[in-house]
Amino acid sequence: MPCRHFLALILLLGWLNGCATLGGLSEAQMAYEQGLALVNQGQYAAAVSLLQRAIDLDANFGKAYLALGRAHLGLGQWLQAIPVIRTAFRLAPEDSKGEVTGLLLDGLLGGATVALKSGKFGESIGLFKEALTLSPQTGQVQPQLMEALIGLGGQLLGQGKLTDAIATFSEATQLNPQHVDGYLGLARALWQQGDIFKALAVGQKAMSLAPGDNNVRSLLQQLQGR
Questions:
Q1: What is the distance between the alpha carbons of residues 4 and 206, in angstroms, rounded to a whole number?
Q2: Per residue in 87-127, pLDDT tens?
Q3: Intervals of the chain under pLDDT 50
């Protein structure tokens, strides 16, 4: 008799554990559906906690990550959205990756633009480069990446970090060989490093691109007077 009770107890515990597991999955699905409905209604702030709850209950719930990413994007919370959508991309089936890629690109460009405007050039560059890798044909990325590189080069130059400034301006000239500001910054950095001949050659390249630019002409005059 005791053996039968013990066996019945084991079966009961197994059944309860199964119910708990099913209940957890059901709760995750319920939280996801409620959160998704709020996202679709534009109630992004209210959706976040529900979708986060779904993810806490099921760490592989790809659709919940995607919906949470949409909520963060709707709130303009780019940096919160990006890692969530990256996870959604990793978990998404192949036939759904296109939709996720579009949302990730939105997050990257939004975050990069905010960083650029606030002078966080290094952070901006990383996000723009990831966006460019994700979608090489995105026309809006290269000009903004160029702006970020010029901004970072100027920061580094002002801090006396000449080697890093030269590398950054050089990257800018490679990204867009027709952009005079990259050559102008590179010439200044080389000059401060003491490499007058290289600085002069780069300055002359800038002059060939923008012969009427007063900044270029002024820099060349200074270099030629050394």
A1: 91
A2: 999 999 888 888 899 999 999 999 999 999 999 999 999 99
A3: 1-3, 5-24
Residue among 49, 50, 116, 61 at smallest CA distance from 87 = 61
In order of their start, the domains of the chain are 144-226 (1.25.40.10)
The angle formed by the CA atoms of residues 45, 71 and 98, to the nearest 5 degrees, is 175
Q: What angle do CA 94, 96, 99 make, to 5 degrees?
A: 130
- Give the three-class secondary structure for 61: coil
47 near 38, Cβ under 8 Å? yes
Compute the residue count for the chain: 226
Say how far apart CA 1 and CA 19 lie, in whole Å.
Answer: 27
Q: Give the whole-angstrom CA distance, residue 28 versus residue 36.
A: 12
Confidence (pLDDT) at 155: 96
Look-up of token digits 């059944």: 15
Q: What is the pTM (predicted TM-score) of this model?
A: 0.79
**What's the CA gap between 141 and 129, in Å, rounded?**
8
Q: Which tokens in the block code for residue 102? A: 């579009």
Residue 226: predicted pLDDT: 60
